[in-house]
Specification:
The structure is a single chain. The protein has about 425 residues and is α/β, with parallel strands linked by helices. Helices cover about 30% and strands about 25% of the residues. It has helices at about 20-30, 50-60, 85-90, 100-105, 125-135, 165-175, 190-200, 235-245, 260-270, 305-315, 335-340, 370-380, 395, 400-405; strands at about 5, 15, 40, 65, 70-75, 85, 110, 135-140, 145-150, 155-160, 180-185, 205, 215, 225-230, 250-255, 275, 280-285, 295, 320-325, 345-350, 350-355, 360, 365, 385, 385-390, 410-415. The radius of gyration is 21 Å and the shape is elongated. It is found in: Cytoplasm. Belongs to the EPSP synthase family. MurA subfamily. It comes from Aquitalea magnusonii. Its main location: cytoplasm.
Length: about 425
Amino acid sequence: MDKLRICGNGPLNGEIRVSGAKNAALPILCTSLLTADTMRFTNVPMLRDISTTQKLLQGMGVRVMTDNVHEMEITADHLDSLVAPYDLVKTMRASILVLGPTLARFGEATVSLPGGCAIGSRPVDQHIKGLVAMGAEVVIEHGYVKAKAKRLRGAHIVMDVVTVGGTENLLMAAALADGTTILENAAREPEVTDLANCLVAMGARISGIGTNRLVIEGVDKLHGCEYSIMPDRIEAGTFLVAAAMTQGHLILRNAAPRSMEAVLDKLVEAGAVVEAGDDWISLDMKRRPKAISFRTLPYPAFPTDMQAQLMTLNCIAEGAGVVTETIFENRFMHVPELNRMGARIEVEGNTAMVHGVEKLSGATVMATDLRASASLVLAGLVAQGETIVDRIYHLDRGYEYIEKKLGAVGAHIERIS
């Protein structure tokens, strides 16, 4: 099993190109199930979750071509199977996103209940509630969601909670439904907007994009198109935190600064000088960071996927910061590992009090989920001595060649087996 060996090596300096967004690519690849035409996607990140999605689609009979790096051509002119099996879905909960488009186009779908990171309960009840409102017959048996509908029909759906996956699944299903669907309390995340824009490029009729009220006028047929995946705001944020923690200077290319304003604001509050254009961000940090307090909430507030990284910045900051996690109930699993490296973090319920220390100490630590993995890498960049991050298959789910990107800007980091 691969590990990362990291030795603190001072400031990071240079340029990094941000990869395509994992959380946008996964639902967008599933749009290929909505049309018999070929879909061509560019700026696709090369990640374990993308490979899992490719295997899942191919297992259903979809043809996937990956002749060029970061590009995919996908054709779903017919399917051999309408089942997404447990063996694939258990490793990536985003697999549930094949449910809506498969049901909408083929009239039935069977999808295993999902797995993924162990960061807390993420039920699919809102997905099912919406599909039932659109006329589907849905049963859950033997660990599978089984749905049927001759043709979905438009409906007015008010989601009980803000759910990114639920919004995406229902958005894709509604694109081919008979009539108009209104999604209230819809997720506003940039990745949802990216999915909606891709559907529009395929011929879907969607208004309210970027708001919490999406109106979809169903069409009889969607066509193929070429679409470029948006840049990954979480990868970008992780690299900016790395530069801030090491008191370095970093320029990010192929970035989307307007999608990550809450994170940039917190980095400025920590003492960084941040500048941005349409597709680039620069960060310059000339001092020890100042501790910051924040609360995770749905977009456009501070994202839960950046909580572990900013908490790690607080570990070596001046002062103390309070971190409150409101999205997932089990997303502080990185705390014991950071404390083993000399951090001073106290957790009570969904709140962590982080007292900054001057130095962390290298240690062997174990990753428990995707973003926790990133936080341990960040800690290793500023720790004295050697840090070994174990179980980095979590990291490979969401970061493309992270050791190469960080190594190119001065980090002492290598992958070992």
